[in-house]
Amino acid sequence: MQGGIWYPGSGRQIHVDNLVSCARIDKQQPCNLSFITSLDVEGKTIILVVLDGCGSHNKRATSLTHERVYTFQDLCSEAFESHRDLSHAIEYLMSRVTTAIEGRVQDLREDEKEMEEIRAQWTYDDSDDIQDEPLESMDTLKAQDWTPSFHSTVVAISGSDIAVGGPGAFATALVDCSTGDATWLAPGSMTARIKPNDVLVLGPRDLPLDKVTPTIARRGESVDIAELLSSLTAENESTVLCVKVLV
User: Which pTM does this prediction carry?
Assistant: First the structure.
């Protein structure tokens, strides 16, 4: 499976290959990005899922959502190659991404200051028609607007092991396709077990998992579960991402 980023869309996005069956359902146009890839580490396949949300209408924060996901994509191989334990690898990855984004924020602050100094020296006449697109000052950006632990939910799966890091902005659970029963995965790094008939679900905090009927679950289709949960969640703008590992 080639790593790929899913951008906000309308309706459903589906990906199926020899490793996973994935479905993402967006309600309206949320500023959420998702990243799914597979890593081969010492002969073991690791499925990595990242769901990242803006959670702010600050344009600076929205642009940093993209920065975070690109950085997860760039650094994930190193994290899992240097840490055999899934939880430790996620913790390391989150730390590296946090450091990288913190540096990026500092660069943006310095760039803004330099631009302000340059603009202070400009002179204008009445013929000038300069209409810059309004952009919030970096001073309006708080740590909680960009820190991955507030926005990024990371899940790693290897065999029957599954680890969750974040907590990010999303709830995480496993739905048993034989019964419809759901098991919530607690926020923060942890390790649980995933069964062959389980579907991983990520979405808003109000995910109505009790509405997943055995009939829907037994179909074992990620898209059916994602569409049901998306239709029932109370949030106006939301993303539901379902992933079923096929190996």
Answer: 0.86
